[in-house]
Write a structure and sequence with these properties.
Elements (H helix, E strand, L loop, with lengths): L7 H28 L9 H26 L2 H26 L4 H24 L6 H26 L3 H17 L2 H15 L11 H27 L10 H9 L2 E5 L5 E7 L10 E7 L18 H4 L2 H6 L3 E6 L16 H14 L2 E11 L1 H12 L6 E5 L17 E5 L7 H13 L5 E5 L7 H4 L5 H6 L4
Helix pairs in contact: 1-2, 1-6, 1-7, 1-8, 2-3, 2-8, 3-4, 4-5, 5-6, 5-7
């Protein structure tokens, strides 16, 4: 490997793309810091990830070429492996959106990437590249941020304590935010190196390089604005503000909570039947909200589908029933997503407790939910077929291995054929598995729709009549 001088044009190109990657990383780091990992469910994230991945690939190629030209053998090797793993991790996100059960593999890939990044930083500090002050500082930053991030990631994988995992997640995001200082040191090193080329004769610009610069600027501006806009609309930068209707409901249906023998708490709202008569038996509908409503305020779930529909006067008067609306905390799930601790047992125990307090028909318990609540709906009916008489899972996923438990269970599933967040194959596989086992589930697929199909589901003729006709 020989020390080959690079042109002014190359340094201009490298500086531009390292700067572009720094700007793109800053955008994502700020959104992650404010919003957590929820941004991966945004429609705009697919395009934004492609932009980030492309800019990362080009800037990494430029740095690798720089290391090669300077004769930094160890740095080049560690940087190459680290870059390939990080690129694979970015690519894995596309599959993660479609197949949530790959989360454990993704986390292992993340840990591997962090370890390699620490080795990359170590090579910058202790190899001949350490003679350059900014590269050495970048190496130390990579080490000082990479080691705690790796420890936190491993800790998070092993821990099932929801509160502790939330704390770890926040700490991870803060440290990762400061990690964007690493490309700053690379940028400063390139700027210092380029100053030594002041007397080099100007060369004609390479058309491909200039075209890539223009494409990067346009992509970051266009897709970045879309990503930032959707992040803001989803809650980044502003607190959740309940509508007047939700405020009225919170006053009418007060907050409740259930605490189990271990001290774990389920926050929920219970909506009684209109004109409740304790001498009559009423069905119970468990309403599971989507992932965008997670929290602890015990309010947000009232505004998340399908709760507004079930709480509408027309439904409540026509189909008198108890409506249980549990609030799932951040970092947890209702069940069915392997990498998240679930609160299913808390919900089941809450139901048992409520049946001692109210006149609930134990043969007419139903569950319905969308997205994360769709996962939960499949999970509830599969793991506790003795408890639920019917289920309406919407754009969720279940476990086909449990299909034999559902052959006699009334199920009406819904999914959008173009769903970018939860693959339609997840529902198709469940339906096929149940049919193969001898069951006859109902399934409605919307051919031209994506993840947001609730407006079509709630307009489905006979949906509620079908649900309330079911009985154990």
């Amino acid at each position: 490997m020989q020390n080959r001088p690079l042109s002014r044009d190359f340094y201009s190109f490298a500086i531009f793309f390292v700067t572009s990657y720094l700007v793109a990383s800053l955008i994502q780091a700020v959104i992650s810091l404010l919003l957590g990992s929820r941004f991966i469910t945004f429609q705009s994230f697919h395009s934004w990830l492609a932009v980030l991945q492309s800019v990362f690939a080009i800037s990494s190629f430029a740095l690798l070429k720089y290391y090669w030209s300077k004769g930094y053998k160890v740095v080049f090797a560690t940087a190459l492996v680290s870059t390939l793993v990080l690129f694979a991790q970015m690519t894995m996100i596309y599959f993660l959106l479609m197949h949530r059960d790959l989360k454990s593999f993704y986390m292992n890939l993340t840990v591997a990437g962090l370890v390699l990044n620490v080795l990359y930083g170590t090579s910058l500090v202790f190899s001949n590249a350490g003679q350059r002050p900014w590269l050495k500082r970048g190496g130390w930053l990579a080490i000082l941020t990479g080691i705690p991030l790796c420890v936190i990631a491993l800790w998070s994988i092993k821990s099932q304590d929801i509160e502790f995992r939330l704390l770890l997640d926040k700490t991870y995001r803060v440290i990762a935010f400061f990690g964007i200082l690493v490309p700053v040191t690379f940028l400063l090193d390139l700027l210092m190196e380029s100053k030594s080329l002041n007397n080099e004769r100007e060369r004609k610009p390479v058309i491909l390089r200039e075209a890539l610069k223009v494409a990067a600027i346009i992509s970051i501006l266009f897709f970045g604005m879309s990503f930032v806009g959707e992040s803001y609309r989803s809650g980044t930068g502003r607190a959740y503000v309940p509508s007047m209707q939700v405020l009225k409901q919170t006053a009418e249906f007060g907050p409740r909570h259930y605490v189990d023998h271990k001290g774990d708490t389920l926050r929920y709202r219970l909506v009684p039947p209109v004109a409740y008569d304790s001498t009559k038996k009423y069905p119970l509908v468990v309403c599971l909200h989507h992932g965008g409503a997670h929290g602890k305020d015990n309010v947000r779930q009232l505004s998340a589908d399908p709760a507004p529909f079930l709480l509408s006067d027309s439904i409540r008067w026509k189909y008198p029933a108890f409506i249980l609306i549990p609030h799932c905390p951040e970092g947890a799930g209702f069940g069915g997503i392997s990498e998240f601790p679930d609160i299913d047992t808390l919900v089941f125990e809450t139901i048992t407790t409520l049946e001692k307090e109210y006149s609930i028909d134990t043969t007419r318990r139903y569950v319905m939910g969308i997205s994360g609540g769709g996962y939960g709906s499949w999970h509830f009916i599969s793991t506790r077929p003795d408890m639920f008489a019917a289920a309406i899972p919407i754009c969720g996923a279940g476990n086909p291995e449990l299909a034999n438990r559902l052959t006699k269970k009334p199920i009406w599933a819904f999914h959008g054929a173009k769903d970018p967040l939860v693959s339609v194959d997840a529902t198709r596989d469940m339906i096929h598995a149940i049919e193969k086992a001898g069951g006859k589930p109902k399934y409605t697929e919307f051919a031209n729709s994506g993840h947001d199909i609730w407006r079509y589901v709630q307009a489905e003729p006979g949906l509620m009549t079908w649900l309330f006709a079911q009985k154990q």
